[in-house]
Structures are given as structure tokens and as C-alpha cells.
Amino acid sequence: MSEYILPVRVYLEDTDAQGVVYNASYFRFLERARTEWLRAQGIEHNRLRDEQGVVLVLVGTQVKFKRPARLDDQLYVSAELSQLSGARFIFKQVIRRDTPQGQLLCEGLAEVACMDVEQRKPRRVPGALLEELSL
Questions:
Q1: Catalytic annotation present for 16
Q2: In CATH, what number is assigned to the domain containing residue 80?
Q3: 96: DSSP letter
């Protein structure tokens, strides 16, 4: 699958008193990139829930922080589907400064599970969703 890159500006709300980005802010940036990756594939969370009876939930993540981001930095947050099997997606993600190929600040993996809305249990990725993803 193709890589999606989301530009993100660091605002005061993302930082501590010294202007360094909070660790939790990185997770919000990464989540936004995964959501926009889905949207770029024509998939929206509300439609998945309403039409296919599934939601996508984060069940695990591994993140390595390489360098800090700071107030006013322009970041580029990428999301790329690296694996899809059964009921789960694995996304490879990175955050870079200044350009999409700029200085590496953060890298990691996110495991996202497909969950049945009514049963609240893992569920295989629906065939219709696989078709939308062209897999």
C-alpha cells in the first residue's frame, strides 16, 4: 500500500514549558496520519461503523523517539500499511522535521484491530473493506 504523509505544525498546546513536544502529542500525530491514510483510500471511520459494523481500534504500538520536536516545527508524519492479516493491520510510521525526507524524529509500528461493533470482539477484516483497499 502507498505511504501517506501528513504535514503537522507543532503548536504551543503540543509542548511543555520549554517548547519541547510532549510524548503524548506524538501519538496524536501518528493517529491522525493513520486516519488520513484510510481517508485517502476512501475509507471513513463512521462509514465503516455504520455500513460494515466494524471499528478500527489501536491495540498496540512501538515507538522509538530519536530527537525532540519543538514549538513551531513543521513535521511530516507518515503512515504506511505494512501488513494486513486476519483481523489486524500493522502500520509503519515515521515523523520527520522540515521535509518528508528530513531529520528523523520518531519511528514506530502501530497494530490496529478490526472489532465487531455489536459483539465487541475482534473480527476478520470484511471483504468489502479488503476490496476498497484493493488487497
A1: yes
A2: 3.10.129.10
A3: E
